[in-house]
């Protein structure tokens, strides 16, 4: 291996690695890139002696003044880092494993790129200090039950119906701003209802449905992506390609009602638009300014509307979609309001992925693994693995029935 490679600082390899692992044009997007960058930063701080107890001085010899380079790395270094992660009492067992995998993946890339001679991070001695997997099974992960799903959708349906009725039955002499406030409240309730129904019944991943700030390709579903007549929705799948997802009957009516109420200027508007006032205020002011309107005229126009979203609808100032984190915030709020009983070690609210897994359980139980795999956009093998607890339970019932029948002859 060339000396210049060995003398390369660890940080000098990070950007190329992250570009290779990133998504979108230039490899500058994606959750994996963001998480890997965070862990690489922690690792390089640790190698420099800046992330550990007072006795740890890093991997560079004490009599040398330089940044950590590849010549400082060997399996003993990765073993010590595994011990460092495992010694953090604030981390769960599977979290330690996850953090180490980010560093191990980078180490493997470094071997392929010629920075390292061997994949030191994967050697048995290096991984020995890592804790064993905590034994968490797919069936232990949150899945909305029928009771939870019905309680949530029933609540948002009632809220939307009340808000829409209040808006549509206003007297003709209602003041314009009061009428706008009622429309805004109805729009927000209708959006939340449509979003909850989609999460509850379609099994679409939340990252395929809404905007991900870390992945420019995931800009959120637009009205042009939805066909209410065909009962389908085009989404950018986890497998990095566009595909059609099914919209079952319970989802159609909330979406149709929401679209009628919103009446978007074009089909390129996001279905689940943000209602964040700060975001919309900045967007409206910047867009109208770009169209040549003066600041005082923009302020006067904004004063005519109860909310900037309504002005954006009038002037076709297209807002961004709500983010995946925004959906989680809505679910946290609704879980508290509805007082849904949730017993889960990680989430004290109905998490978005729980809706998908809940539908997966329904489909596996009703139609088997093959149909469920098609609906969930997964391989049948993966669905069997993730929902193996269902098959185990059913086999247990079969065993119980067999024992009952055999014992009855004694």
From TrEMBL:
Q: Which GO biological-process labels does this protein carry?
A: DNA integration; DNA recombination
Keyword DNA-binding included in the entry's annotation: yes
Task: Read off the InterPro entries from this record.
Answer: CB, DNA_brk_join_enz, Integrase-like_cat_sf, Integrase_recombinase_N, SAM-like_dom, Tyrosine_recombinase_XerCD
* Pfam families attached to this UniProt entry: Phage_int_SAM_5
Q: Name one GO molecular function term.
A: DNA binding
UniProt domain Core-binding (CB): residue ranges = 5-111
Q: Which SUPFAM superfamilies match?
A: DNA breaking-rejoining enzymes
Q: Which UniProt keywords apply?
A: DNA integration, DNA recombination, DNA-binding
To which species is this protein native? Haloarcula limicola
Protein name per UniProt: Site-specific integrase
């Amino acid at each position: 291996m060339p000396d210049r490679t060995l003398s390369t600082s660890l940080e000098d390899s990070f950007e190329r690695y992250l570009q290779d692992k990133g998504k979108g044009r230039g490899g500058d997007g994606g959750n994996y890139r963001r998480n890997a960058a965070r862990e690489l930063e922690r690792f390089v701080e640790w190698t420099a002696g800046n992330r550990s107890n007072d006795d740890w001085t890093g991997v560079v010899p004490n009599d040398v003044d330089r940044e950590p380079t590849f010549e400082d790395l060997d399996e003993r270094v990765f073993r010590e880092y595994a011990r460092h992660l495992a010694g953090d009492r604030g981390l769960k067992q599977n979290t330690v494993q996850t953090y180490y995998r980010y560093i191990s993946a980078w180490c493997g890339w470094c071997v392929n790129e010629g920075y390292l001679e061997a994949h030191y991070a994967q050697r048995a001695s290096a991984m020995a200090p890592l804790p064993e997997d905590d034994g968490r099974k797919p069936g232990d992960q949150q899945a909305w039950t029928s009771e939870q799903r019905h309680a949530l959708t029933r609540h948002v349906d009632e809220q939307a119906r009340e808000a829409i009725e209040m808006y549509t039955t206003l007297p003709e002499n209602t003041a314009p701003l009061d009428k706008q406030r009622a429309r805004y409240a109805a729009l927000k309730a209708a959006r939340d209802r449509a979003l909850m129904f989609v999460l509850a019944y379609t099994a679409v991943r939340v990252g395929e449905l809404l905007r991900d700030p870390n992945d420019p390709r995931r800009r959120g579903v637009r009205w042009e992506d939805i066909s209410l007549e065909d009962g389908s929705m085009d989404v950018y799948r986890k497998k990095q390609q566009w595909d059609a997802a099914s919209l079952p009957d319970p989802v159609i009516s909330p979406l149709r009602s929401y679209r009628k109420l919103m009446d978007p200027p074009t089909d390129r508007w996001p279905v689940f638009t943000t209602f964040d006032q700060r975001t919309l205020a900045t967007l409206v002011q910047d867009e109208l300014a770009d169209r040549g309107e003066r600041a005082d005229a923009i302020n006067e126009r904004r004063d005519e509307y109860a909310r900037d979203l309504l002005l954006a609808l009038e002037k076709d100032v297209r807002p961004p979609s709500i983010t995946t984190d925004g959906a989680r915030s809505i679910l946290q709020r609704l879980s508290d309001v509805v007082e849904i009983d949730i017993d889960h070690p990680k989430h004290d609210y109905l998490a978005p992925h729980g809706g998908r897994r809940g539908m997966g359980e329904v489909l596996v139980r009703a139609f088997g693994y093959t149909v469920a795999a098609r609906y969930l956009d997964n391989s049948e093998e993966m669905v069997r693995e993730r929902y193996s607890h269902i098959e185990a339970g059913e086999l247990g019932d079969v065993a119980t029935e067999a024992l009952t029948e055999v014992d009855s002859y004694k």
